[in-house]
Amino acid sequence: MGFLRFQREYELEADQLGVELVARAGYDARWYRTYVDRAQNAPVVPASGSDEFLQARAAVIEAIKAPVRRPPTLRR
Fold first, then answer.
1. Are 19 and 29 in contact (CB under 8 A)?
2. Chain centroid offset of residue 48 CA
3. Collapsing DSSP states into helix, strand and coil, what is residue 23?
4. Rounded CA gap, 19 and 17, in Å?
5. pTM greater than 0.70 (yes/no)
6. Which of 38, 34, 33, 40 is CA-nearest to residue 15?
7. For the stretch 47-67, what's the b/e string if a residue is b when 16 or more beta carbons lie within 10 angstroms of its beta carbon?
8. For 24-55, what is each residue's pLDDT tens digit?
9. What CA–CA distances, in Å, run from 19 to 8, 11, 30, 56, 65?
10. CA dist., res. 8 & res. 1, Å (int)
């Protein structure tokens, strides 16, 4: 239970900082609340399956291993 209290305090502090940054940037800080409400109520996307993750990981590893092709230069 103590952890939840600290988490709420951190969220409140982050929201206050967000409002301050929005106001300093010249935006109407009242719209920040609308943004936060929408972001917090957004549906949670379920995690993709492990097979999809492994395929994406393999693709990234393969892309990293691929040789870098450099454009030809006029120098000899």
1. yes
2. 17
3. helix
4. 5
5. no
6. 33
7. eeeeeeeeeeeeeeeeeeeee
8. 999 888 888 888 888 777 776 666 667 887 88
9. 17, 12, 8, 37, 44
10. 11
